[in-house]
Design brief:
With 247 residues, the protein is of the alpha/beta class. The chain is built from nine helices and ten strands. It has helices at 16-24, 45-52, 73-88, 107-120, 138-142, 145-148, 166-175, 192-196, 235-246, and strands spanning 8-13, 29-32, 58-61, 93-96, 125-128, 152-155, 180-184, 202-205, 208-210, 231-233. The strands form two sheets. Strands 1-2-3-4-5-6-7-8 form an eight-stranded parallel beta barrel, surrounded by six helices. Strand 1 (8-13), helix 1 and strand 2 (29-32) form a beta-alpha-beta unit. Helix 1 packs parallel to helix 2 (45-52) and helix 3 (73-88) runs parallel beside helix 4 (107-120). It is globular, with a radius of gyration of 17 Å.
Protein backbone atom coordinates (compact mmCIF):
# COMPACT_ATOMS: atom_id res chain seq x y z
CA UNK A 1 0.00 0.00 0.00
CA UNK A 2 1.31 3.46 -0.94
CA UNK A 3 1.72 5.72 2.06
CA UNK A 4 0.28 9.23 1.72
CA UNK A 5 2.88 11.97 1.26
CA UNK A 6 3.14 14.06 4.45
CA UNK A 7 1.99 17.65 4.19
CA UNK A 8 4.98 19.94 4.68
CA UNK A 9 5.13 22.81 7.16
CA UNK A 10 6.75 26.06 6.03
CA UNK A 11 7.29 29.01 8.37
CA UNK A 12 7.96 32.55 7.18
CA UNK A 13 10.87 34.02 9.15
CA UNK A 14 12.87 37.22 9.12
CA UNK A 15 15.97 36.25 11.09
CA UNK A 16 18.29 33.32 11.80
CA UNK A 17 16.77 33.14 15.29
CA UNK A 18 13.36 32.59 13.71
CA UNK A 19 14.79 29.85 11.52
CA UNK A 20 16.12 28.10 14.63
CA UNK A 21 12.69 28.34 16.29
CA UNK A 22 11.05 26.91 13.16
CA UNK A 23 13.65 24.14 12.89
CA UNK A 24 13.34 23.13 16.52
CA UNK A 25 9.54 23.24 16.33
CA UNK A 26 9.45 20.73 13.49
CA UNK A 27 9.11 22.89 10.39
CA UNK A 28 10.29 21.32 7.13
CA UNK A 29 11.61 24.57 5.67
CA UNK A 30 11.40 28.33 6.04
CA UNK A 31 10.65 31.20 3.73
CA UNK A 32 13.16 33.95 4.49
CA UNK A 33 12.37 37.61 3.96
CA UNK A 34 12.57 41.04 5.57
CA UNK A 35 9.72 43.51 6.00
CA UNK A 36 7.13 40.89 6.85
CA UNK A 37 4.69 43.68 7.72
CA UNK A 38 5.00 44.83 4.06
CA UNK A 39 4.26 41.38 2.69
CA UNK A 40 7.95 40.49 2.61
CA UNK A 41 10.98 41.78 0.71
CA UNK A 42 14.31 40.33 -0.44
CA UNK A 43 16.69 39.43 2.43
CA UNK A 44 20.32 40.51 2.39
CA UNK A 45 23.20 38.24 1.40
CA UNK A 46 24.43 38.06 5.00
CA UNK A 47 20.96 37.21 6.28
CA UNK A 48 20.69 34.34 3.81
CA UNK A 49 24.16 33.10 4.75
CA UNK A 50 23.43 33.10 8.48
CA UNK A 51 20.06 31.43 8.01
CA UNK A 52 21.65 28.76 5.84
CA UNK A 53 24.01 28.02 8.73
CA UNK A 54 21.05 27.02 10.94
CA UNK A 55 20.64 23.89 8.85
CA UNK A 56 16.98 24.21 7.87
CA UNK A 57 16.29 24.65 4.13
CA UNK A 58 15.59 28.33 3.50
CA UNK A 59 13.70 29.62 0.49
CA UNK A 60 14.45 33.30 -0.04
CA UNK A 61 11.72 35.67 -1.11
CA UNK A 62 12.84 37.82 -4.03
CA UNK A 63 10.64 40.90 -4.14
CA UNK A 64 12.39 44.21 -4.68
CA UNK A 65 9.70 46.54 -3.31
CA UNK A 66 6.32 46.57 -1.60
CA UNK A 67 3.14 47.30 -3.52
CA UNK A 68 1.79 45.49 -6.55
CA UNK A 69 3.36 42.82 -8.73
CA UNK A 70 3.63 44.60 -12.09
CA UNK A 71 7.36 45.21 -12.55
CA UNK A 72 9.25 47.31 -15.06
CA UNK A 73 12.38 46.21 -16.93
CA UNK A 74 14.82 47.50 -14.32
CA UNK A 75 12.96 45.79 -11.47
CA UNK A 76 12.93 42.48 -13.32
CA UNK A 77 16.67 42.74 -13.96
CA UNK A 78 17.27 43.59 -10.30
CA UNK A 79 15.29 40.57 -9.13
CA UNK A 80 17.10 38.32 -11.60
CA UNK A 81 20.34 39.38 -9.95
CA UNK A 82 18.83 38.91 -6.48
CA UNK A 83 17.77 35.38 -7.42
CA UNK A 84 21.35 34.50 -8.27
CA UNK A 85 22.73 36.25 -5.17
CA UNK A 86 20.50 34.50 -2.63
CA UNK A 87 21.11 31.09 -4.16
CA UNK A 88 24.88 31.63 -4.17
CA UNK A 89 24.52 32.61 -0.50
CA UNK A 90 23.01 29.27 0.46
CA UNK A 91 19.26 29.50 -0.19
CA UNK A 92 17.67 26.18 -1.12
CA UNK A 93 15.20 27.94 -3.37
CA UNK A 94 13.60 31.23 -4.29
CA UNK A 95 10.10 32.66 -4.10
CA UNK A 96 9.24 35.00 -6.98
CA UNK A 97 6.32 36.45 -8.90
CA UNK A 98 5.23 39.00 -11.49
CA UNK A 99 2.00 40.00 -13.20
CA UNK A 100 1.10 41.94 -16.32
CA UNK A 101 -1.17 45.00 -16.05
CA UNK A 102 -4.11 42.85 -17.18
CA UNK A 103 -3.57 40.61 -14.11
CA UNK A 104 -2.26 37.62 -16.04
CA UNK A 105 1.08 36.05 -15.22
CA UNK A 106 4.08 37.89 -16.65
CA UNK A 107 5.45 34.76 -18.26
CA UNK A 108 8.52 36.46 -19.71
CA UNK A 109 9.63 37.75 -16.29
CA UNK A 110 8.84 34.45 -14.61
CA UNK A 111 10.91 32.49 -17.14
CA UNK A 112 13.81 34.85 -16.52
CA UNK A 113 13.58 34.23 -12.77
CA UNK A 114 13.41 30.46 -13.23
CA UNK A 115 16.32 30.47 -15.69
CA UNK A 116 18.39 32.62 -13.32
CA UNK A 117 17.74 30.21 -10.45
CA UNK A 118 18.59 27.10 -12.41
CA UNK A 119 21.74 28.72 -13.84
CA UNK A 120 23.11 28.79 -10.29
CA UNK A 121 21.66 25.55 -8.96
CA UNK A 122 20.02 23.14 -11.42
CA UNK A 123 18.00 21.62 -8.58
CA UNK A 124 16.89 24.96 -7.07
CA UNK A 125 13.24 24.99 -6.05
CA UNK A 126 11.25 27.90 -7.41
CA UNK A 127 7.98 28.98 -5.80
CA UNK A 128 5.47 31.45 -7.22
CA UNK A 129 4.39 33.73 -4.40
CA UNK A 130 0.97 35.19 -3.69
CA UNK A 131 1.01 37.35 -6.80
CA UNK A 132 -1.16 34.50 -8.07
CA UNK A 133 -3.87 35.60 -5.64
CA UNK A 134 -4.01 38.93 -7.48
CA UNK A 135 -4.35 37.23 -10.87
CA UNK A 136 -7.63 37.56 -12.70
CA UNK A 137 -8.06 33.75 -12.61
CA UNK A 138 -5.81 31.96 -10.10
CA UNK A 139 -6.99 28.52 -11.22
CA UNK A 140 -6.13 29.19 -14.87
CA UNK A 141 -2.82 30.75 -13.82
CA UNK A 142 -1.70 27.75 -11.75
CA UNK A 143 -2.16 25.49 -14.78
CA UNK A 144 0.65 27.39 -16.55
CA UNK A 145 3.28 26.95 -13.88
CA UNK A 146 4.59 23.50 -14.78
CA UNK A 147 5.55 24.66 -18.27
CA UNK A 148 7.26 27.69 -16.74
CA UNK A 149 9.44 25.44 -14.58
CA UNK A 150 7.99 26.14 -11.14
CA UNK A 151 8.23 23.73 -8.22
CA UNK A 152 5.32 25.07 -6.17
CA UNK A 153 2.93 27.96 -5.63
CA UNK A 154 1.91 29.74 -2.43
CA UNK A 155 -1.74 30.76 -2.44
CA UNK A 156 -4.75 31.77 -0.41
CA UNK A 157 -7.05 30.82 -3.26
CA UNK A 158 -7.45 34.49 -4.11
CA UNK A 159 -9.08 35.20 -0.75
CA UNK A 160 -7.88 37.35 2.17
CA UNK A 161 -7.01 34.17 4.09
CA UNK A 162 -6.26 30.61 3.05
CA UNK A 163 -9.11 29.29 5.18
CA UNK A 164 -11.55 31.55 3.32
CA UNK A 165 -10.13 30.44 -0.03
CA UNK A 166 -10.07 26.70 0.72
CA UNK A 167 -12.52 25.75 -2.02
CA UNK A 168 -10.51 27.57 -4.65
CA UNK A 169 -7.27 26.08 -3.31
CA UNK A 170 -8.79 22.62 -3.83
CA UNK A 171 -9.52 23.57 -7.47
CA UNK A 172 -5.98 24.85 -7.87
CA UNK A 173 -4.61 21.54 -6.59
CA UNK A 174 -6.53 19.77 -9.35
CA UNK A 175 -5.29 22.19 -12.02
CA UNK A 176 -1.64 22.38 -10.94
CA UNK A 177 -0.42 19.04 -12.26
CA UNK A 178 3.08 18.31 -10.87
CA UNK A 179 3.37 21.74 -9.24
CA UNK A 180 2.93 21.62 -5.47
CA UNK A 181 0.23 23.87 -4.05
CA UNK A 182 1.03 25.42 -0.66
CA UNK A 183 -1.80 27.02 1.31
CA UNK A 184 -0.94 30.22 3.15
CA UNK A 185 -2.19 33.64 4.33
CA UNK A 186 -3.53 34.34 7.78
CA UNK A 187 -3.15 30.70 8.77
CA UNK A 188 -3.51 29.69 12.41
CA UNK A 189 -3.09 26.13 13.70
CA UNK A 190 -6.86 25.67 13.93
CA UNK A 191 -7.12 26.15 10.14
CA UNK A 192 -4.70 23.39 9.25
CA UNK A 193 -7.12 20.47 9.06
CA UNK A 194 -9.29 22.45 6.62
CA UNK A 195 -6.27 23.27 4.46
CA UNK A 196 -4.97 19.70 4.47
CA UNK A 197 -8.39 18.59 3.21
CA UNK A 198 -7.87 20.69 0.04
CA UNK A 199 -5.09 18.34 -1.05
CA UNK A 200 -2.41 21.01 -0.57
CA UNK A 201 1.15 19.69 -0.42
CA UNK A 202 2.18 22.19 2.26
CA UNK A 203 0.88 24.74 4.72
CA UNK A 204 2.61 28.10 5.20
CA UNK A 205 2.28 30.46 8.14
CA UNK A 206 4.30 33.22 9.75
CA UNK A 207 3.70 32.05 13.35
CA UNK A 208 4.62 35.56 14.40
CA UNK A 209 4.19 37.65 17.52
CA UNK A 210 5.28 41.13 18.42
CA UNK A 211 8.72 41.31 20.00
CA UNK A 212 8.82 42.20 23.69
CA UNK A 213 11.16 45.12 22.99
CA UNK A 214 11.86 47.50 20.17
CA UNK A 215 9.08 50.08 20.26
CA UNK A 216 9.82 53.73 19.53
CA UNK A 217 6.38 55.28 19.66
CA UNK A 218 6.33 59.02 19.08
CA UNK A 219 9.31 59.16 16.72
CA UNK A 220 8.22 57.46 13.47
CA UNK A 221 10.95 56.36 11.08
CA UNK A 222 8.82 56.65 7.95
CA UNK A 223 5.27 57.01 6.63
CA UNK A 224 4.48 53.35 7.31
CA UNK A 225 6.03 53.22 10.78
CA UNK A 226 3.64 53.36 13.74
CA UNK A 227 6.41 52.81 16.29
CA UNK A 228 5.26 49.31 17.21
CA UNK A 229 7.59 46.39 17.85
CA UNK A 230 8.91 44.17 15.11
CA UNK A 231 7.76 40.57 14.69
CA UNK A 232 9.52 37.42 15.86
CA UNK A 233 8.73 33.74 15.39
CA UNK A 234 6.60 32.23 18.16
CA UNK A 235 7.77 28.77 19.21
CA UNK A 236 4.37 27.85 20.65
CA UNK A 237 2.59 28.59 17.38
CA UNK A 238 5.13 26.59 15.38
CA UNK A 239 4.73 23.63 17.75
CA UNK A 240 0.93 23.87 17.57
CA UNK A 241 1.07 23.87 13.76
CA UNK A 242 3.33 20.82 13.81
CA UNK A 243 0.91 19.01 16.13
CA UNK A 244 -2.01 19.91 13.89
CA UNK A 245 -0.25 18.44 10.85
CA UNK A 246 0.76 15.31 12.72
CA UNK A 247 -2.68 15.01 14.32
Amino acid sequence: MTRPVPVALEIAVTAPAGAVVARDGGADRVELCVGLELGGLTPSQALVEMTHETGIPAHALVRCRPGGFVHDRDEVELMEREVRTVLRSGAAGVVVGALRPDRTLDEDALRRFVDAARSVTPTAEVTLHRAIDHAADPVAAVALLADLGFTRVLTSGGAPTAAAGARTIARMVQAAGPVQVMAGAGVIPADISTLVATGAAAVHLSAKRAAAVGTHAGVPMGAGDDGSAHFVTDAEVVAAARRALDG
